[in-house]
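TA notes, week 10

Several of you asked for a full example with nothing omitted. So below is the full record: structure tokens for the whole chain, then the designed sequence directly under it. When grading your own attempts, check the secondary structure regions first.
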């Protein structure tokens, strides 16, 4: 719908948010799709595997959104090839990509968990998973979940791993050593976590 000046500032802001969100989503899908097609040809996989890989990206976009396109492409192709009954060693895919093996395995593990659960995890699931990886106590988890509940509107459409990491960092009183550990555990950067934390109301 075209938004005109007479619709008011609120509608203009909503229209801008929608454009930026959709354009960003489409750009990410296009970048990942290009990598999927390139790696499929390089590895000699059937077209059906690439189609299933692209379907996985769309289905679980929030799970993979925070990773580079080359990492996501290898992870979803590796996962889709297994599901299609034509499994390949991960090395076959890595030879066709600059993706880092450790990060590919992390994305593939997340996809496996999503498929196994058959549902989209809640933000609390992300918090609990990260807290377990960096050995944070239950009290910090509870505080982080409360922070996220207060900031749902701000975090709409954001990477849930980054949001969970930022909430845990805030709930731990911004310990510097913990910031790096959370970035590693969530597959993101310390800068992304800091930016997300700055947007939150504690």
């Amino acid at each position: 719908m075209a938004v005109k000046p007479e619709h008011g500032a609120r509608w203009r802001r909503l229209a801008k948010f929608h454009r930026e969100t959709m354009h960003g989503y489409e750009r990410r899908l296009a970048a990942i799709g290009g990598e999927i097609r390139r790696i499929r040809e390089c590895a000699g996989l059937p077209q059906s595997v690439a189609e299933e890989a692209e379907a996985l990206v769309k289905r679980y976009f929030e799970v993979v959104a925070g990773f580079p396109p080359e990492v996501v492409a290898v992870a979803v192709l590796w996962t889709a090839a297994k599901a299609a009954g034509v499994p390949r060693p991960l090395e076959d895919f890595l030879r066709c990509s600059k993706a880092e093996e450790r990060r590919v395995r992390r994305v593939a593990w997340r996809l496996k968990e999503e498929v196994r659960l058959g549902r989209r995890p809640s933000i609390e699931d992300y918090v609990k998973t990260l807290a377990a990886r960096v050995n944070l106590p239950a009290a910090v988890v509870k505080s982080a979940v409360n922070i996220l509940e207060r900031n749902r509107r701000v975090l709409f459409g954001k990477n849930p791993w980054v949001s969970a990491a930022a909430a845990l960092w805030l709930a731990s009183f911004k310990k510097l050593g913990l910031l790096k550990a959370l970035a590693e555990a969530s597959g993101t950067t310390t800068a992304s976590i800091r930016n997300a934390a700055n947007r939150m109301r504690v």
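The domain at 8-117 is CATH 1.10.472.10 (Cyclin A; domain 1). Use that as a sanity check on your answer.
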